[in-house]
TrEMBL record:
Residues 192-230 form the PAS domain. It comes from Methanogenium marinum. CDD domains: PAS. This is PAS domain S-box protein. SMART domains: PAS (SM00091).
Length: 455
């Protein structure tokens, strides 16, 4: 069998050297030292194979190497591993991928050998051997098989194709395709798909898929719960833009192909009144939302909306803003002086944090001049020890106290102020102070009159 392949190779190489000259059978036979009938047989095989071309000159047949790509050479252009064996499992032909994959340096070496004797594990697989035997015997066989190579952990998809050799005898073409990377990719995608399905089902955020018209085509359980809907089919087909109050903003973002985030609002009472959805929720719902374009298997435009319920947080912020506004109105509008300070230097002094308008008038000082300053440094005339002790007691016990009247500045025009001090939830200390200078003056006058009456 090796001489058969060698003879074919010698004829091809001889014609290649003489190209483009056309050579007769007799000349080939004479120059290569082979019998004329043998040369004729091999030339016919090469012609059928597409490796040589023949033209007639009278009764003579003249041959030259073919300018066309031989059929066997076509197999060298593909990545699949191709090997052709005869009915005795001997290798007739193999392509470049075969030799490369199995690291066979000498391409002539396996030709003519039984494929099971090549030492290649894949062809020693009993299942593959039995399938080849069934093909040879004309029995039902498998067109496709999968093989896992225990040594390399490579996975091969194998095809078995009955064919006919150049001499007309039965042969088998075996095609092997290394699909390890493909299988690993498919497995990874399968795992990713499973993860995505798990996220879609279990994530607490609502997820809506919708098309370019806004019609909802899919929704997860969290979306139904957030919208107060029990029946999945009630939401499917509903137009997203009819559900939210900020539809123009979303439409504009989608029009320019942008992903984005926004806050959306749903007026559930309006939605129920207009028979858009029959939600179990009432009032307004506020949601933090993000939307983006997603790939579609159908080729049409599809989008996803991910949203979270922030109604409680939003309402708390609204209430806080209202309370802050109310507090600020009270703080600045009350006729009682208010001073807010925070302990500093381990209670030795106190940082002034805020002052209301009434206190500015009482002390005849600007708010900007006091904020951030230390109490006892700005007002050294205060009875520091008694004030410090009172403030620290309130800070430690959180029990409000009334401080006896005192002056911030020692002069006859400085008002006498009484203080009600208490601790705020913020850890700061607040002091409400009232000017009682007139009351003290009346009391002093009354005492003088009383003394005069008895003298």
């Amino acid at each position: 069998m090796e001489s058969y392949q060698d003879t074919l190779t010698n004829i091809r190489e001889y014609l290649q050297e003489k190209h483009p000259q056309k050579i007769s059978i007799s000349a080939i036979s004479r120059n290569l030292g082979i019998h004329r009938s043998t040369a004729s047989k091999y030339l016919e095989i090469l012609r059928l194979n597409g490796q040589v071309t023949m033209c007639c000159y009278g009764k003579s047949k003249l041959y030259t190497i073919s300018d066309r790509i031989p059929t066997t050479s076509l197999f060298d252009c593909i990545n699949e591993i191709i090997v052709i064996i005869d009915s005795n499992s001997r290798i007739l032909m193999a392509n470049k991928s075969f030799f490369s994959k199995f690291n066979i340096k000498n391409e002539r070496e396996p030709i003519g050998k039984n494929i099971q004797e090549t030492g290649l594990d894949i062809f020693s697989d009993i299942a593959i051997q039995k399938n080849i035997d069934r093909m040879v015997q004309g029995k039902t066989f498998l067109d496709d098989m999968l093989h896992l190579d225990d040594k390399t952990n490579r996975i091969y998809a194998i095809k078995f194709i009955p064919t006919v050799s150049h001499d007309g005898n039965q042969s088998i073409m075996i095609s092997l395709n290394d699909i390890t990377d493909q299988k690993q990719t498919e497995e990874a995608l399968s795992i990713s798909d499973e993860k995505l399905r798990t996220i879609f089902k279990r994530v607490p955020s609502g997820i809506l898929f919708f098309n370019e018209e806004g019609n909802i085509i899919n929704a997860n359980a969290a979306a139904l719960s957030l919208l107060g809907i029990e029946d999945y089919h009630e939401l499917i087909g509903t137009n997203l833009f009819n559900l939210v109050c900020q539809k123009d903003k979303i439409k504009k973002g989608l029009m320019y192909g942008k992903a984005g985030g926004t806050e959306i609002t749903c007026d559930f009472d309006l939605l129920k009144r207009d028979n858009i959805i029959s939600s179990s929720r009432s009032g307004r719902g506020y949601f933090e939302a993000a939307f983006t374009h997603i790939a579609s298997e159908t080729g049409s435009q599809e989008f996803a909306l991910l949203f979270m319920d922030v109604t409680t947080d939003r309402m708390a912020k609204i209430e806080l803003k209202f309370n802050e506004s109310r507090y600020r109105s009270f703080f600045n509008g009350t006729c009682t002086g208010v001073l807010i300070y925070q302990p500093a230097d381990k209670g030795d002094d106190f940082i002034i944090k805020d002052v209301n308008n009434a206190l500015e008038i009482i002390l005849q000082v600007k708010k900007e001049e006091l904020i951030g300053k230390k109490l006892f440094e700005e007002f050294p005339d205060l009875p520091i020890n008694s004030v410090r002790e009172a403030l620290n007691r309130v800070d430690n016990t959180e029990i409000p106290e009334i401080v006896p009247p005192l002056q911030y500045i020692k002069n006859e025009n400085s008002p006498w102020l009484t203080h009600f001090i208490f601790k705020l939830p913020t850890g700061e200390i607040a002091s409400f102070m009232m000017d009682i200078s007139k009351e003290l003056s009346k009391e002093v006058t009354s005492q003088k009159v009383h003394v005069n009456c008895f003298t």
